[in-house]
Specification:
little secondary structure, 2 domains, three-stranded antiparallel beta sheet, two-stranded antiparallel sheet, globular
Length: 164
């Protein structure tokens, strides 16, 4: 969901139509300094980038796409901020393949219990919920960095290429 304008001039996200129908494509971790993804993931195969379509959004608009749709965004060459909010919406039947994860139930009943349910905070920045958020974030780091030497988002020496 766009919180600020997202357009070709500030590096809006693009996608390659139809790629969501293909099997999972191989990726490689780059841990590149200028790649904001957790592991600097990029596709390890050529997908014909010339077919890419840019998605231009105004604040409040959103792009909703299948997780396997080839998508990404270039660097923002402008002086304007490009801020978005990623939302992942899944049915309760889906399960995490590595480690225990948590989620917020937004409607219905969770009959599968694949995720720990995150409670709704009772106030902004309430210490108990700030602590819970830190625990969830660190647990997510263990899942996202599995198979690498990185163990935490907070280790400034873990990714030398990203060190300031």
């Amino acid at each position: 969901m766009a919180l600020t304008p997202s357009n070709a001039g500030n590096g809006a996200m693009g996608f390659i139509p139809g790629t969501h129908t293909a099997a999972q494509m191989p990726h490689r971790d780059t841990f590149a300094k200028n790649n904001l993804l957790t592991r600097g993931q990029e596709l390890a195969v050529d997908v014909g980038a010339s077919r890419a379509v840019t998605i231009e959004l105004e604040p409040g608009e959103m792009s909703l796409h299948h997780v396997r749709l080839v998508h990404g965004s270039p660097a923002n060459p402008s002086h304007d901020r490009r801020i978005g909010f990623a939302i992942r919406y899944i049915p309760t039947s889906v399960s995490q393949v590595a480690g225990r994860d948590s989620a917020t139930l937004v409607r219905g009943v969770d009959e599968f219990h694949h995720f720990d349910l995150e409670p709704r905070p009772s106030a902004d920045m309430e210490p108990v919920f700030v602590k819970l958020h830190k625990e969830i974030t660190e647990r997510n780091a263990q899942i996202l960095y599995r198979g690498t030497e990185v163990k935490s988002y907070n280790d400034p020496n873990a990714l030398p290429e990203r060190a300031a």
